[in-house]
Design brief:
Number of strands: 16
Low-confidence stretches: none
Mean pLDDT: 95
CATH architecture of the largest domain: 3-Layer(aba) Sandwich
Structural class: alpha/beta
Order of helices and strands: EHEEEHEHHHEHEHEHEHEHEEHEHEEHE
Shape: elongated
CATH class of the largest domain: Alpha Beta
Helix content: 25-40%
CATH superfamily of the largest domain: NAD(P)-binding Rossmann-like Domain
Radius of gyration: 25 Å
């Protein structure tokens, strides 16, 4: 099978692909693509393409909906870079509280033989508060948000968490000392706010003049999630007015670089060798599992679907989530005197995925007949 790499992928990950795979940045007719940050919205998807694995959590660079329409499964690697982002978030807390960046820049410009005296005379302009005992609001309690919240508790902060889609796994991992709150409560109560939410139509620019107006005067905001979560014009005004004391972002752009009291980090959230290795291993393992066995793990556009193999032949069917389609698929298989050994069906929004294990061979005519069923997008035989 052919795997195209659109970015440099850690060798520890690609080494997990056996000799049955051809891997590289010039591979033609790929069944799978491994990508990090490369923009794919204008990429022409070949008919051969079955899956895209993003070595990272965010998939804004991939046309996820268009891929679903074509039966291309898109994977991400949630949690693989969580520790790296958590550590940067702790650094961001300190950078947003103490004017370390400003102090360092000022010190680098000192000259003469009396530098020590200049330091003692000028250091007061970089004074900032300690974080112990302060209130931190964590918006988004996924793998990263939970780790940030727990680390902040360990540092002596009073932590409030907010996530309307909190998973059972995240809830179990969350410290008992984290108090769940509404967005309004976080805005009005917290001295620091750290954003770890995905960028969706509902969350785009949700930090704006309206939400900022609810916040405490002198609030410090950290954004290590996505730049589009914050309205730049509203943030610039809030910084100018002193409503927001400091804004730390991992997504600098032409606007944020001109703002006062902003710390612009050059997108270093996942920039650790450990994170890159973890993401590469997870991405490769997921795309292998799908290509070889049809199991879906950590897809963003199709339901997670896993079933141990039984029988002789496996049929993997991507289809629309519409009434009667499952019975039509079963009827078509039965019409060819093929016995179903095992079967699983899962749905996610408008799309669904069905795996059928059979006790006999499935020929091209069977595949064509299943493919002709209304709502079926793609059929694979393994």
């Amino acid at each position: 099978m052919n795997i195209l790499t659109l970015n440099k992928i850690s060798k520890i990950g690609t080494d997990r692909l056996t000799a049955d795979y051809t891997v590289g940045d010039d591979v033609q007719n790929p069944e799978g693509i491994l990508v990090r940050s490369a923009a794919m919205h204008d990429y022409v998807m070949p008919d051969s393409l079955l899956a895209i694995a993003r070595a990272g959590a965010g998939v804004n660079n991939i046309p996820v909906d268009a891929c679903a329409q074509k039966g291309i499964v898109v994977f991400n690697t949630p949690g693989a870079n969580a520790n790296a982002v958590k550590e940067l978030a702790i650094a961001a807390l300190l950078l947003g509280s103490r004017d370390i960046v400003g102090g360092v820049k000022w010190a680098e410009g000192l000259t003469g033989d009396d530098v020590a005296k200049q330091v003692e005379k000028g250091k007061s302009q970089f004074v900032g508060p300690e974080i112990t005992g302060k209130k931190l609001g964590v918006i988004g309690l996924g793998a990263i948000g939970v780790m940030v919240a727990n680390a902040a508790v360990a540092l002596g902060m009073k932590v409030y968490g907010q996530d309307p889609y909190l998973s059972i796994k995240s809830a179990w991992n969350l410290s008992n000392n984290v108090q769940m709150a509404t967005l309004a409560e976080i805005y009005t109560e917290c001295d620091y706010i750290s954003i770890h939410a995905p960028l969706t139509p509902d969350t785009k620019e949700f930090i704006n003049k309206t939400s900022i107006a609810l916040m405490k005067d002198g609030v410090r905001i950290l954004n290590l999630a996505r730049g589009g979560l914050v309205n730049n014009a509203d943030m610039a005004q809030a910084l100018e007015d002193g409503k927001v004391a400091k804004y730390v972002t991992d997504f600098p752009d032409a606007e944020t670089l001109k703002m006062k009291n902003v710390v612009c980090i050059p997108h270093l959230g996942a920039s650790t060798p450990e994170s890159e290795d973890n993401c590469a291993v997870m991405a490769v393992d997921q795309i292998k599992e799908y290509l070889e066995h049809g199991n879906i793990i950590n897809s963003v556009n199709f339901p997670n679907t896993e079933m141990a193999r039984s029988g002789k032949t496996r049929i993997c069917i991507i289809h629309k989530n519409i009434p009667a389609i499952l019975s039509n698929i079963s009827a078509e298989i039965a019409s060819e005197n093929i016995n179903i050994e095992n079967m699983i069906n899962k749905s996610k929004g408008d799309f669904a995925y069905t795996i059928v294990d059979c006790n006999s061979d499935v020929n091209d005519v069977n595949v064509q007949n299943i493919s002709a069923i209304e709502g079926v997008i793609r059929v694979r035989i393994l």
